[in-house]
């Protein structure tokens, strides 16, 4: 059994994986102000709540876009499990060719998602991760990572909107009763949810046009479940995409 962690700008998604089966997933807040002991305590509590014995964990792997937290989490994992965690980078054996100007600059979350995608879905692939930022990655029919897009995330956009306008309130991202809002809150909800859904649909159309063929579209991330059901394209929701990718990379490198 291994411990897998995806460290994002807002949340750390972690889970235990045994023989390719994800036994559980949990989220904790990403906070570079915490110490390695803080993270160790949080990890230990999660494992205890999930009734996972530390002695059963034989390895660990981290995918991270927050370098300061990466080192803290490695130390926390060492304290709790005694294991030395692998940290994903493009120089590892990932089974994916990255056709970018500077492959080492590509976020590990994008790489991990693409690795899981090519092992789970037909190519070409469009992979959407909706978190602090909304990222879109494209894998061609030869299973090569060829690029993508980075958009402001929904939360970032809404925080910017409310902080820079005097009369717009902070709102919950609940679906509005109608597309055409009848009050300020409904109008903001419609703009945030249907606006982002329309953006995703439009980007998929443009990507497929440039590829010259239809693609499998997969979405993951904390906000995907609020947006993807409103899209008009057929998009597969996969909450465990990144943990699956971490498991595949771990097997290739351990």
Can you give keywords for this protein?
cytoplasm; potassium; Nucleotidyltransferase, domain 5; 7 helices; globular; transferase; 6-stranded mixed beta sheet; alpha/beta; 254 residues; metal-binding; 5-stranded mixed beta sheet
Question: What does it look like?
Answer:
This protein has seven helices and eleven strands. It has 254 residues and is of the alpha/beta class. It folds into two domains: 2-87, ATPase, nucleotide binding domain (Nucleotidyltransferase, domain 5, 2-Layer Sandwich), CATH 3.30.420; 97-245, Nucleotidyltransferase, domain 5, CATH 3.30.420. The strands form two sheets. The protein has a six-stranded mixed β-sheet with strand order 6-9-8-7-10-11. A five-stranded mixed β-sheet has the order 3-2-1-4-5, sandwiched between helices. The relative contact order is 0.16. Catalyzes the phosphorylation of pantothenate (Pan), the first step in CoA biosynthesis. One of its GO terms (molecular function) is metal ion binding. Homodimer.
Question: What can be said about this structure in brief?
Answer:
With 254 residues, the chain is α/β, with parallel strands linked by helices. It has helices at residues 36-49, 67-81, 108-120, 154-163, 184-211, 224-227, 241-253, and strands at 2-7, 11-18, 21-29, 59-64, 86-87, 97-98, 125-130, 133-139, 144-152, 216-220, 236-237.
